[in-house]
Amino acid sequence: MTTLTLSRALNEGLRKALEANDKALIMGEDVGKLGGVFRVTDGLQKDFGEARVVDTPLAESGIIGTAIGLALRGYRPICEIQFDGFIFPAFNQIVGQLAKMRYRSLGTVKLPIVVRVPFGGGIGAVEHHSESPEALFAHTPGLRVIACGDPADAYTMIQQAASSDDPVLFFEPKRRYWDKAEVDTEGGLAAALPMDKARVLADGTDVTLLCYGPMVRTCAEAAVAAAGDGRSLEVIDLRSLAPLDTETIFASVRKTGRCVVVHEAVVTGGLGAEIAAQVTQECFYSLEAPVLRVGAYTTPYPPSRLEEHYLPDLDRILDAVDRSFGY
Amino acid sequence: MTVKDAGRAARAGRRATENRAPAREPERADRAELIQLLTPEGERVEHPDYPLEISAAEVKDLYRDLVIVRRIDFEAIALQRQGELGIWASLLGQEAAQVGSGRALSPRDMAFPTYREHGVAWCRGLDPMKLLELFRGVSHGGWDPTAHNFHLYTIVIGSQTLHATGYAMGIQRDGAVGDGGEAVIAYFGDGATSQGDVNEAFIWASVNNAPIVFFCQNNQWAISEPLERQSRTPLYMRATGFGFPGVRVDGNDVLACLAVTRKAMQAAREGQGPTLIEAFTYRMGAHTTTDDPTRYRLSAELEAWKLKDPIERVKQYLIRTEQAEMGFFDAVEAEAAEVGARVRAACQQMPDPEPLSMFDNVLTAETAQLAAERDAFATYLDSFADEAVAAGEGR
């Protein structure tokens, strides 16, 4: 076991992915000498060369579009979109092209492409650097959408994504890049939890707390705080947003009877809405309260001096837990 | 010009004046050099940069291609009119650009088409029925791009140029540039040159010196918008700004399209990087079968381009040089009619896909959610089957 930051764990995982398959490539803006603006690709170009760790021109549509062409030629590009809010110039290439190619080719084409996206707020950034656009991609058939929440998952999930034959949107919680934890870099992937499975982080009996990405740590802290109030929260890191591991979700809600979904993204039309609908449909007779959502308000991301009010935090999560007991 | 046309011309002129930027006179299209090896009258001319040695048999093969792809197009339009196809994007007038460039490719080269490249598809060996499947709504194309090195049709304008460029970057990484190398050709139209993706593809191809030829069929119209809505400079000249050569070829001259594309593809295969070819042609038909070009362009323009027909000039050349007798033309006509009849019959007999097939091929492995949706839909469908059986028994 080694202690790694989440950023470093991704770096180690990417290194393993490049070693595991010589068709794997890293592509993006500033991923070479600089090592990415968050240093996730630090040192990789030096070790794997400019043909495999590619500093691209500054155009996101071009990154994904050329990655599609490389994949058609047999390569396995791992693309970096520098910040969440910069993904939209590539929206057509991801949603219109990448997601649909397998379907429209009747399965003759596979596009093993990973799109890494640092997402979420809490770092005091300017506009377009703090967004959570994951629901837009989870809404798109033909993509797998996953998010890591801690260094250990970052290390394994990026390798799993790289070895997937489907396109994967890989969301990285940028405010957790510097969180440290023990990571097993010796063991292989065989024993790792598949990337499309949720993980129960803390067993509980009173409320199911569903989260992913940057909210995983916040929810774990909320569970500790709630325990002090005598409430037992079951915290589940969803990890996979498309497809959702509904088996794990439903089993927990049937046990607790209450469910709170937490994400940084705007609640309107977000993952929480989808989960609430499915939980209501499948666990209706187990529910003691409606599924509640904690997330951003239905506004554009505010200036960073307001983000502490905009983003879910411990108190807002505990408030929702309290409300869940009010029914 | 009819009175009606004159009225349209006056209105069009007024609109153009209102919208005109008061800047410098743009580079005029008619001042640009047009590579031509066969005049509209069927006279063979030489160009110092594009010597073309071609046998009578090869010219006759090109003629056959031109006639057959026009026939397939003709049948498809008729099939749409009869309700057998949902829509069709006609290639009428662009046969030479497509056959000339398509026949310049080696089997190992890769082509990335738009949705109008029926002539290129023919040259690559794709069964025309696959195209009809798409326009009938039976599939989204569904052919294996590696079977004929002909990628799926792309409908979002210009998107495929980036795929083509990435593929060319893959050729570089495979070390398949140089002697016996491979290259890519990306097709797009004049309207697509306004797309960001096309401009990004130019940049990527240029900075990577990728083995790719950008083949722009400038058919003068992007649905209803004339070229001057897309560009104030001849399209081929844009290449210079991106750092690679551009050339304008007579897109209705199959020999010139063949020679120019051959040279550009060979340069790409040898590692000399990209070329932009602007094939100057004309969309003789509507944008698609849903379009009505009489609303936005003059019949006089169409008449002028009829005189530059890509097929007639080859026929005149073959007759003039006594390389073909009338029996040859009759045989080609008969063969085209046979292909047309086959396309027609096959289209009419094409079954709809099974409803449950719409759940196939979303991801490499079906998710539990999708499996549940498929099962629920199957059960739902079966409930109607029960009703039908019950109704049958009642009668």
Write a structural description.
The complex is a heterodimer of chains A (327) and B (395). Chain A is an alpha/beta fold and 327 residues long. Chain A has 2 domains: 2-183, Thiamin diphosphate (ThDP)-binding fold, Pyr/PP domains (Rossmann fold, 3-Layer(aba) Sandwich), CATH 3.40.50.970; 199-324, Rossmann fold, CATH 3.40.50. Chain A has 12 helices and 14 strands. In chain A, the strands form 3 sheets. Chain A has a 7-stranded mixed sheet, with helices on both faces. Chain A has a 5-stranded mixed sheet with strand order 9-11-10-13-14, with helices on both faces. In chain A, strand 13 (259-266), helix 10 (271-282) and strand 14 form a beta-alpha-beta unit. Chain A is globular, with a radius of gyration of 19 Å. The mean pLDDT of chain A is 97. With 395 residues, chain B is α/β, with parallel strands linked by helices. Chain B folds into 2 domains: 32-348, 3-Layer(aba) Sandwich (Rossmann fold), CATH 3.40.50; 362-394. Chain B is built from 13 helices and 7 strands. Chain B has helices at 3-19, 56-81, 95-102, 118-124, 128-136, 159-173, 196-208, 238-242, 254-269, 299-306, 312-320, 326-348, 368-394; strands spanning 110-112, 184-189, 212-218, 221-222, 225-226, 246-250, 275-280. Chain B has a 5-stranded parallel sheet, sandwiched between helices. In chain B, strands 4-5 form a two-stranded antiparallel ribbon. In chain B, a hairpin with a 2-residue loop joins strand 4 (221-222) and strand 5. The chains are: A alpha/beta (327), B alpha/beta (395). At the A-B interface, helix 3, helix 4 and helix 5 of A face helix 6, helix 7 and helix 13 of B.
